[in-house]
Amino acid sequence: MVARRYSYTLIIIVLLLIALIILRMQLPSIVKDYLNGKMADIGEYQGEIADVDIHLWRGAYSVDQLEITKKDQPEVVFFKAQTIDTSVSWAALLAGKVVADVDLMNAEIHLVDDETDDKPEEKSTWRQTVQEIIPLQIDRLNIDNGEIHFHNFTSDPPVHLVFYQLNGEITNLSNTDRNEGLEYANFDVEGRLFDNADATLSGRLDPLGDFHNFEL
User: Fold this and answer.
1) Do residues 127 and 134 make contact, with C-beta atoms less than 8 angstroms apart?
2) Which helix (H) or strand (E) holds 52?
3) Per-residue pLDDT tens for 74-121?
């Protein structure tokens, strides 16, 4: 009787292990489908992710080949990144908080000056989607080889400025509710302008709040 109970327990444990292994194998696809579902319609924007990797042993996941475009400006990618690696702090998690460090690798953001764009911002915006996808406090966002592009396609001549080879960090990024006011993040980056000019940029702003209030 004891041997039979031992066999049943062993079978249950083996089945549970097999189920966990299958779940672990399917988890990246589940997360990828969830994120792509969230990003399929972000108000005026739409996005897609090519791949997701889960790193359970260090409490992290990475997103590969993220691309976000504005629906009325398909010729310009609003934001893209080769890899976004998010690592959760176990110490903060045990204290009941979700705090993470993020590494942003080979990312580009394209800002377009369009005087004809006077449409009010839709209720469902890309900012709200970001808050849903990453509902946490980011202690540090490290930027590795990034680029900021500024375009004006209607000016004469057209304008295209690039701040490239961008390295630095953004600290204190928060996805908390903005109803009680802005949540400022600090940034300090360096890179190159006009092909060969070294440049630095620092200040603070609320990337999920009102871009009219910032220090540069």
Assistant:
1) no
2) strand 45-55
3) 677 888 999 989 887 766 666 666 678 889 999 998 888 866 554 544
